[in-house]
Each structure stands twice: as structure tokens, then as C-alpha cells.
Amino acid sequence: MSKLDQLIEQALSDQDKEMLRETRQLGWFALGASQFSGKLGWVTWVIMVVQIALFITAVWTGWHFFAASEPLTALKWGLPSATLVIVATILKTSLMPQMQADRILRELKRVELMIAQKAG
């Protein structure tokens, strides 16, 4: 917690402190897990299933790559393996912008709640 966060918490009443606890910032893993629920949770499930399938296939083709004794056979298995690993990585990192957007929306909701309580 930063010095600014401590000053804000000291200035708030007990009711406001409770609101801060309820809308606290989620950790990395909790934020990642929250992507699997909500209106667009199914998209995350599809991306993760496809990403896992691509990764397993990449491991399988990579196994054949390292077992190959001929250069042409190694190339035949190595290129698909490298391509599948890259695509799987891109799919996994495609969820990062959504996680950041969720963090910002959560903070906006927190500010809206604070304003509504002060106005009411």
C-alpha cells in the first residue's frame, strides 16, 4: 500500500472503509480467474481451450522434431511446432487488454460508488 493510499484510508469514515474493502483491487490471479465469468466469459473459455490444444500439439510436433535424424524431417516437424507455440502465446496474451480494462472499470465503479454515497 502506498503512502497516498494510507492517507486516503485514514481520512475515510468507517462506512467508507467498508466500501473500500468490498471494492478492493484484485490480485493478478484473482483478476485472471474473473475473466472466466460474466457476459464474455465464454470467449475466455474458448481461447483457453484452443490455446491448450495448440500447446499440446506443439509439444507433440516438437517431440518429433527432436527425434528426427534427417534435416528435412526435422524441418517438417520443427516449423509447425514453432508456429504453434507462437500462436498459442499470442492467444494467451490476447486476454491481457481485457484484464487491464476490467481493472480500470472496477476503479471507476469504486469512484462512482463514493460519489453516490457522498451525494446521497
From TrEMBL:
This is Holin-X, holin superfamily III. InterPro entries: DUF6768. It comes from the Bacteria. The chain crosses the membrane at residues 42-65, 77-95. It holds the Pfam family DUF6768. Keywords: Membrane, Transmembrane, Transmembrane helix.
